[in-house]
Design goal:
It contains two helices and six strands, in the order H-E-E-E-E-H-E-E. By secondary structure, it is an alpha+beta fold. Strands 1-5-6-4-3-2 form a six-stranded mixed beta sheet. The N and C termini lie far apart (about 40 Å). Mean pLDDT is about 85; it is low at about 1-15.
């Protein structure tokens, strides 16, 4: 009985951080020239689960397109957008690269079930 109560309590405690998660398709990706900024931003065909600092913005995720990691993310996003594939995205629960757009943690193309 005590174990059940402990498990129930654990599921009601909010976990630290509320980074957003999204599963769906990509609407638009924009990258700026280096003279403007090195950031790229992502617009979705849906709403992320548990939105954090990007609630009021259409461009939900931002990443640095000038880094090797950012270039990899860009290629994954473009491949998914062009093929209409579903992606999984998770944010970092902070908006440091662009105000009102959550920093992107990772993205992957979902495989068919």
């Amino acid at each position: 009985m005590m174990k059940r109560m402990l498990i129930a309590v654990l599921f009601t405690i909010p976990f630290a951080g509320s980074a957003s998660e999204y599963t769906g398709t990509i609407k638009q990706v924009v990258c700026h020239t280096e003279t403007v900024s090195s950031v790229c931003q992502v617009m979705l065909n849906g709403t992320p689960f548990s939105e954090s600092c990007a609630k009021e913005n259409s461009w939900k995720y931002t990443f640095n397109g000038a880094t090797p990691e950012g270039k990899n993310i860009l290629s994954i996003l473009l491949a998914a957008q062009m093929s209409g594939k579903t992606v999984g995205i998770r944010g970092l629960d902070k908006c440091t690269l662009a105000a009102g757009s959550e920093d992107l943690r990772h993205v992957y193309i979902e495989t068919p079930k």
